[in-house]
Each structure stands twice: as structure tokens, then as C-alpha cells.
Specification:
This protein has 686 residues and is mostly helical. The chain has a domain at 41-80 and 411-686: Orthogonal Bundle (MetI-like fold). Helix content is 76%, strand content 0%. The longest helix has 35 residues, at 319-353. It starts with 31 loop residues before the first helix and ends in a 20-residue tail after the last helix.
Length: 686
């Protein structure tokens, strides 16, 4: 690796230490590594004599009495819809969501009886989208919005794309109505923050997939389930980020407003909210991307949108169909991300550039008039109401399918060899240790490791989570899912450290790799399954590959940030003491960035877990398979819900253990880093 040394600040000769300096990255906790190895050795020895016994394995279609009882309770709740007050409230919420989505579909995308076409045709929809993008951002974003919608239309997915945007926008609207007041409340009250934060922790730790099963019970399938699940999933980011922005408004500014006699309402509306505006819009950006991601996954419960063709393509292995729909998802994801990001900086840019607000108002009015004219045209002429048919999408789908088949045929020896060797050498041994151990042995070993790595509090949480997993009746499947998660995370962290060090030392590497990471973080998880399936066919390995691609960007970025935060004086002192590049990296930067690396592992674990569950669509098995079974067949609802509870328990357990390790690293007196908080939609407390 060629190191770009100019990234490290230099000291003048007067600033250099006059005597040789030995730089240490800090010692590990006393005996921690030895204790971990000791637990693993004892575990392997006992496993050797007890493997295959008391594993609590359950066949794919088998159920326990507990699962049947949950299914019966579901039936009882459904039967009490007209008498149970809670179910009546859920019915009202579901009906409101369904009515809103149906009305918007008739307005924008479906025939509005007695009209054979929507109230506003495709031309009017594109014009309105372009005008809104201009109003909240810029003319460049206006062009991006129009081009994105037209591309989706010509790829053959106009209706699915608009349906997805409808679900997303309705959900975002509800998130803002609920989230902004909560953020204001949290930003003004430590008590409210203490009460609400644990709830947000749980919501953000749960993989997106798991929201769907309980939601279906209360509001049914289709648009209502899609909207409610999306709201629950996307709500935490805007609350957290907006509350942080309100809370961090300068105290001196608040004191100045108090001195002139402003009321609490004036302080909020004229000082706190305006000064936190940029942060609030960043929160809206995060919530928008989370909502978009969840609205796609809602295809599992018959939610309308682009998730439907992707789901069909994955389940029938029609890679071409899934690919074209996936391209549309990528286009819309990039559009929403760029649009909300541009909106967060527009006001600041306008102020710095000295732009004339009158000119902008005139442009907005003129653009609004043009948009209304095009809306009228789309209501009047059939060509502007129905999106023209195109052969572009089907042609691409056929070519991609043919390419996928060719790749599978021509490179099957290579891909199969990679898959089989990895499975035999890495995946199977770890799964044998976790899933083939007696449940009590695996549980005791996991509890001991949790205490050693994360501390006593993490041990208490781990004990509770293991009890939930045991009670779910799906212990063996949970160990399979845990195996995939740990293996995927190990690969993610290897990539994160290698690429993170490279990017931290080289401006060129950072400039090349970072845009790829940014794009990767924008894409919803469904998209990653498509290339993995095309290359490796449905297996556990395929699910792990998709999970690694999904989780790697955030872990790499955290490692880069951690390395760059290492004090330059420490690097210079080590250089003055004669350390070479390898020693600087291994003896100084990586040890002193330990907290950030452990935080990256925390995020990697949660992202991989989320994707490993969705990976059931490409042969991942484990708890993901049980959850999908619960979606697809009503008699397995109880098993699917129990699988969801076990997945949440795994997520909370891994989150608390790695967070405990982060805290332990930050208490190390030799570490000079401060653990930074990151707001990432959908997973873990930042």
C-alpha cells in the first residue's frame, strides 16, 4: 500500500520532541482477550462431546404449542374487530390510511371512475414534481426530479413508481406531524428525552422486516400495513436529529431572547426552530430515506409500489425483471436523497450568494403557472394522461436475464467454488458450533462472552435476550441467523479496516471510494439481493454476500473517521521515534481508533442482521425463513411472529454488547478519541 503522507500534519523542528518518544496505542482490558479465548476453548471442548444433542432444532414446517397459541390469539383478535376498542382504533387508522392512499392513486396513477385515466396524467405529475423540487431546492433538482420520473416510466414502471412515492410521501407526512412536536418536546425537556429515548432505541434496533407481522394483525395487508409500518420505521430519525438540533441551539442566544421578554412560544418559533432548521431538514432527509426503504419492503404484505416486481423477480429467480425494477428504485432513491440534501443547504447557499429573493419568487410563480397548464393538458388529452408504452424495460430485462444465465453457466465453476469453499471452511464450522451445541452450552458461552466484551450491564441484557430466544421455540434457527450475522460482520470489518486505512492515508483513494460508499448507503436493501442472486443462486452464502455489500459502507466510513481523528502529534511522535508506515498504522492509528472501530462493528452487526433476515428470499434460511413463512401462510403466523421476536432479541443483544465495548474503549486513558454519534435510519442507537 502506498501511503500518502501529506494527510498527516507535520511539525516544525522546534515542535518536535527533544528525546525519543515511545507511542503506545494503549493496552487492552486486563486479560480480556485471554478470557475470550478461554471461553471459546472450553466451549469447543464441551461441544465435541455433546454436539447434536438438545439443540432444540425444529423442522421447517413444524410448530410448537406456543406458536399455535399465538396464531389462535390472532384469530381471536380478528374476530373481535367490531367489539375490541383497541382493534376498532386500529381499524380507523387502517381505513384512514387506505382512503388517503386510494384517493392519491386515483388522483395520480389509477383510473378515477368515471374517467378511464387518473385525474392528473403523467405529464401533469412530472410538471408538479419538477415545480416542487424547484421550490424546495433548485432548478437542477427540478431537472433531476423530472428526469427520474420519466426514466422510471420509460423503463415500464410508471404506476409502480408513483405508488411507491405515494406510500413514502404519506408516511413522511405522518412522521413529520408526529415527530416534530416530539422533537421540540425532547429538545426542551430532559425528562421526556429520558422516557422517549429507550423507545426510539428499540424501534431503531429492530430490522425493518420485523415491523410487518404485528402490523398486519391490526390493520390488515396492503396500503394500510405499508403506511403504518413505514411510519414506525421512519419516525425515530427525525425525532432524534431534530431534537438534537433544537437542544444544541446556543444558550447565549436563548438568554438574549429571554432578556428582551420573549414568551416561550416566541422563543421556539423565532429562535430555536429557525436556528435548528438545517439540522431538522437533515432529519427529514434521514426519515425520507428510511421511509422509502421500508415502503419497498412492505411488498411482503402486499404494499403497492416497486417492491412488488422486485419480490416477484427474486422469488421466481427472474433476475432481469428484478433488475429493471431495482434500477427504478435506485433512480428514485438517488432523487429523494439529492433533493432532501439540496433542500437542507438551499437557504444557506442563497444567503451566501446574495441571490435576489424577488427573482426567485417570480421564477416560482412562472414555474407554477407552467405546471398548472401542463396539469390541464394532462387532464384533457389522452396522450398526456396515459404514460406511453415503451419496450426499453422489457428489452433490458431480457438482456440481463440472458447475461445472468450466461454468467451462471460460464462462471459457475468459479462462483460455485467460492461459495462451496467458503461454506465448508468458514460457515459450516461456526454454524456447527453455535447451532449444534446443546442450547444450554451455547447460551452459557454467549452470556460469558457478552460479560467479558460488553460488561455486566450487557450481560444482563444478553441473559434476557437469550431467554426470549429460548421462549420463542426457535433456538436452533436463531443460532443459524446469528452465525450468518457474525460471519458477515467479520467480512465487513476486514473490508472496513483495509479500505478505511487506505482511504485515511490516500486522498486519491478517498476521492474514488467515497462516492461509491455514498451511493451504497442510498440504496434500499432489496437492491443488494439482485446481483448476489445472479452470481451465486439461492444459498446462505448469497444472503451473506448481499449483507456484506449492504453493511460495508457505514463501517468503512466510521473507520476512516476514527483514523483521521487520531491526534497528529501522536503520529509525528511515532515518526520521530523511527516508526515506519506499517508501525504507524498497526501500533498507533488502529489502537487509538479502537472506539470508532468497535462502533463500526456495532453498526456492521446491525446492518448485517437486518439484511440476513431479508436474505431468506435468496436462501438465507434461519429466522428469516420462519418470518417469511408467517407472511405467506396464515397457519404459521405464530411461528413468524415468534421469529420476529427472536430477531429483535438478537439485535438488542448484539447492540448492547458492542456498545458496552465502545464504552470500555472510550474509558481507556490512552485513547484520545471521542466516540461520535451517527444517525443512521433503522438500526441501533447512535
Amino acid at each position: 500500500m502506498t501511503a500518502t503522507r501529506e494527510l498527516q500534519p507535520t511539525l516544525s523542528s522546534d515542535d518536535r520532541p527533544s528525546a525519543p518518544v515511545t507511542v503506545s496505542g494503549g493496552r487492552r482490558g486486563p486479560g480480556r482477550l485471554t478470557a475470550v479465548l478461554g471461553v471459546v476453548v472450553v466451549w469447543v471442548v464441551v461441544w465435541f462431546f455433546t454436539r447434536g444433542s438438545q439443540t432444540l432444532a425444529l423442522d421447517g414446517l413444524a410448530k410448537t404449542a406456543f406458536h399455535d397459541r399465538i396464531t389462535e390469539l390472532r384469530g381471536d383478535l380478528i374476530a373481535s374487530r367490531d367489539t375490541n376498542a383497541f382493534m376498532q382504533v386500529a381499524n380507523v387508522i387502517g381505513d384512514l390510511c387506505a382512503t388517503t392512499v386510494t384517493w392519491l392513486q386515483g388522483l395520480l396513477v389509477e383510473a378515477a371512475f368515471p374517467r378511464p385515466v387518473p385525474e392528473i396524467g403523467w405529464l401533469g405529475v412530472v410538471a408538479l414534481a419538477a415545480w416542487i423540487a424547484f421550490a424546495i431546492a433548485s432548478w437542477k433538482m427540478s431537472a433531476l426530479a423530472a428526469a427520474s420520473l420519466l426514466l422510471c416510466g420509460y423503463l415500464g414502471y410508471w404506476e409502480d413508481s408513483i405508488d411507491l412515492l405515494i406510500i413514502t410521501m404519506v408516511s413522511i407526512g405522518i412522521c413529520l406531524v408526529i415527530g416534530i412536536p416530539f422533537a421540540v418536546w425532547m429538545g426542551s425537556s430532559k425528562v421526556v428525552t429520558a422516557v422517549v429515548t429507550p423507545v426510539l432505541d428499540v424501534l431503531q434496533t429492530m430490522p425493518s422486516f420485523i415491523y410487518l407481522l404485528p402490523i398486519v394483525l391490526f390493520v390488515g395487508i396492503g396500503a394500510p400495513a405499508a403506511v403504518v409500518a413505514t411510519v414506525l420505521y421512519a419516525l425515530p430519525p427525525v425525532i432524534r436529529i431534530a431534537a438534537n438540533g433544537i437542544r444544541t441551539v446556543s444558550p447565549t442566544t436563548i438568554e438574549a431572547t429571554d432578556s428582551i421578554g420573549q414568551t416561550a412560544w416566541q422563543r421556539l418559533s423565532k429562535v430555536r426552530l429557525p436556528m435548528a432548521k438545517k439540522t431538522i431538514i437533515v432529519g427529514i432527509n434521514q426519515t425520507t430515506m428510511a421511509a422509502f426503504s421500508m415502503a419497498i419492503i412492505a411488498a411482503f404484505v402486499d404494499g403497492p409500489g416497486l417492491g412488488q416486481p422486485v419480490l416477484r423477480g427474486l422469488t421466481t429467480q427472474q433476475v432481469g425483471v428484478a433488475f429493471v425494477a431495482g434500477v427504478c428504485i435506485v433512480i428514485l432513491a438517488i432523487m429523494l436523497d439529492r433533493l432532501t440534501t439540496a433542500a437542507s443547504v438551499r437557504a444557506e447557499q442563497a444567503t451566501r450568494s446574495g441571490a435576489n429573493p424577488v427573482t426567485r419568487r417570480i421564477a416560482l410563480v412562472a414555474g407554477g403557472v407552467v405546471a398548472l397548464v401542463l396539469v390541464f393538458v394532462s387532464r384533457t388529452y389522452l396522450w398526456a394522461a396515459e404514460f406511453p408504452e415503451s419496450t426499453i424495460g422489457p428489452t433490458i430485462a431480457r438482456n440481463v436475464q440472458a447475461f445472468s444465465t450466461t454468467m451462471t453457466d460460464d462462471f459457475s465453476t468459479v462462483t460455485t467454488g467460492i461459495k462451496d469453499n467458503f461454506t465448508v471452511v468458514v460457515l459450516n464450522p461456526l454454524q456447527a458450533l453455535l447451532a449444534d451445541s446443546p442450547w444450554w452450552l451455547a447460551g452459557a458461552a454467549l452470556l460469558a462472552l457478552a460479560v467479558i466484551i460488553g460488561g455486566r450491564s450487557a450481560g444482563v441484557v444478553t441473559l434476557a435476550c437469550l431467554a426470549v430466544i429460548y421462549g420463542s421455540g426457535l433456538w436452533n434457527d436463531a443460532m443459524v441467523t446469528l452465525t450468518m450475522t457474525l460471519v458477515g460482520t467479520a467480512i465487513v470489518m476486514m473490508l472496513a479496516i483495509v479500505l478505511g486505512v487506505w482511504m485515511a492515508w490516500s486522498h486519491t483513494a478517498d476521492a474514488v471510494v467515497r462516492p461509491v460508499l455514498d451511493a451504497g448507503q442510498t440504496l434500499p436493501p432489496f437492491v443488494y439481493l439482485i446481483p448476489a442472486l445472479a452470481l451465486f443462486e439461492p444459498t446462505r452464502f448469497t444472503a451473506i454476500v448481499a449483507a456484506v455489500i449492504y453493511a460495508a459502507p457505514i463501517a468503512i466510513k466510521l473507520v476512516v473517521d476514527g483514523i483521521r481523528q487520531v491526534a497528529p502529534t501522536s503520529v509525528e511522535a511515532a515518526t520521530a521515534a523511527g516508526s515506519n508506515t506499517r508501525q504507524l498504522i498497526t501500533k498507533v492509528q488502529l489502537p487509538m481508533a479502537k472506539s470508532s472501530i468497535v462502533l463500526a462493528a456495532n453498526q456492521g452487526l446491525l446492518y448485517v442482521l437486518s439484511m440476513a433476515v431479508i436474505g431468506a428470499l435468496v436462501g438465507g434460511g434461519g429466522l428469516g425463513y420462519d418470518a417469511v413463512l408467517g407472511f405467506s401462510q396464515g397457519e404459521f403466523y405464530g411461528k413468524g411472529l415468534a421469529a420476529g421476536a427472536a430477531i429483535v432479541a438478537i439485535g438488542i443483544m448484539l447492540d448492547r454488547v458492542t456498545r458496552g465495548a465502545v464504552r470500555a474503549g472510550s474509558r481507556n486513558p490512552s485513547a484520545s478519541l471521542v466516540v461520535r454519534t451517527h444517525s443512521i435510519p433503522g438500526l441501533g442507537s447512535r
